[in-house]
Amino acid sequence: MRSFNSIAVSALLAGSLFLSGCATIVSSRQKPTAIDSSPSKLAYKIVDGNGAVVSEGRTPTTVTLQRSSAYFKPGTYTIQISQRGKVVGTQTVSAGINGWYFGNILLGGLIGMVIVDPLSGAMYRMPESITVATNQTSVALGDQPKALQIVDISTLTSAQRSKLVRI
Questions:
Q1: Residue 66, beta-bridge partner list
Q2: Which of 74, 87, 75 minimizes the C-alpha distance to 45?
Q3: pLDDT by 10s per residue, the chain, length 167
Q4: Region of residue 72 (left: phi > 0; alpha: psi -120 to 50; beta: else)
Q5: Which residues contact 124 (CB under 8 A, 6 or more apart)?
Q6: Is the pTM of this model over 0.85?
C-alpha cells in the first residue's frame, strides 16, 4: 500500500510540474518599472501598443507595466517626455524574454512553454528602470531660442560695456 501512495504522490507532483510554467511560478504578470528623464522633474506620458494612455505624471516615478499585450506578444510602450506641452524626448520600450521561461525545458514542459507562460505573460520581462534622454537644447532654451543681436557699442550700458572682451 505504501508503494502505491508513493507512486500516486510522485505522479501528482510530476503532473503539477508539467502543468505549470516555470516563469509563471517565479515571476508575476506585472512588474514595477522606474521611469526617469534627463533632466528629471519633467512631464511624462506612457502609451501602450494600442494607443491607450497607461500612465501620466512627472519624473521620476515608478509605474507597473503589463509584460505582454497578447498571447506570445510582448508588451510595447512609448514614453513621451514633455516640457511646457512640447515633447522633448521619446523612447519605445518592449518586454524581453524572461530567462525563467527556458526553465520549462526542465520543469514546466511543453504545456508551460506553449500555454501557461505565454498566457500569463510571465515569459516576458520589463526593464527595472528606464531613463529617457531629452533634446537638451529644447529643454535648456525652452520655447524661446536665443537670437543673435547686433548693436552699436554706444547703446550699451556701463555694466554691459564692462563685460566686453577686446579681440
A1: 30
A2: 87
A3: 555 556 655 554 454 444 445 555 556 556 688 999 888 889 999 999 888 999 999 999 999 888 777 777 888 899 999 998 898 998 988 887 776 667 767 666 777 667 776 667 777 888 888 889 887 544 444 444 556 667 778 877 888 888 888 87
A4: left
A5: 67, 68, 74, 75, 95, 96, 97, 98
A6: no
Q: Are 126 and 75 in contact (CB under 8 A)?
A: yes
117 Cβ neighbours under 8 A, 6+ residues apart: 21, 22, 23, 24, 98, 101, 104, 108, 123
| Cα separation, 26 vs 14, whole angstroms | 18
CA distances from 89 to 16, 62, 101, 105 (A): 47, 18, 33, 41
Q: 33: which strand partners?
A: 63
Domain ranges of the chain: 2-135
Helix (H, G, I), strand (E, B) or coil at 162: helix
In angstroms, the CA 75 to CA 45 distance is 16
